[in-house]
Amino acid sequence: MDEEEYVETKRETNEQLKEFSGSLEKLMKGNISLVSALSAVRLATQLAISNAFKTPEIIRMFAKQEPKLLREKLKQIVDDAHFKKISREVCNRQKAEVLSALRHLGEKLSSEELQFLESHNDVANAFKNIEFVEVHDDA
Question: Which residues form the Beta-catenin-interacting ICAT domain (predicted)?
Fold first, then answer.
């Protein structure tokens, strides 16, 4: 995925997120009687991907399904942080991106990697307490 494709995908995802946010707001106000669970899950997934992957290089590796390159990138990120080439915050964000990509590609993560991902993945943490409920139309 080149930079132009990334920007276009991000723009489309952000538009869909705004639409999703509007639907949720209407639902909360009672203006929508039923929300398609499948649509809600699809949009939530796009939101997670949009927020989880902010580094174009990682997005490209994920899109091309290149777990070996992602593992190499992970090592590079850790090394860069160790040698103070990047901040700890950038390291943690990029490391969480790579680990999320690896997990979505079906790669096995160590227990240490899973713990890191759980504690540093803001998207996953943001959705921990959200429950989707079915709303029935009584009219």
Answer: 80-129
Q: How many CB atoms lie within 10 A of CB 73?
A: 21
Q: Which of 8, 92, 71 is nearest to 62 (CA)?
A: 71
pLDDT digit string (tens) for 83-94?
999 999 889 988
Both tokens assigned to 30: 């009672």
Q: Is 102 exposed, middle or buried (0-12, 13-18, 19+ CB in 10 A)?
A: buried
CA distance 26 to 29: 5
Q: How far apart are CA 99 and CA 136, in angstroms?
A: 39
Return d(Cα 104, Cα 66) in angstroms, integer.
Answer: 12
Euclidean distance between CA atoms 138 and 89, whole angstroms: 49
Axis-axis angle for helices 88-104, 56-63 (nearest 10): 10
Per-residue pLDDT tens digits for 95-128:
988 898 898 889 999 999 999 988 886 644 544 4
Say which residues have a Cβ less than 8 Å from residue 78's Cβ, sequence separation at least 6.
Answer: 91, 95
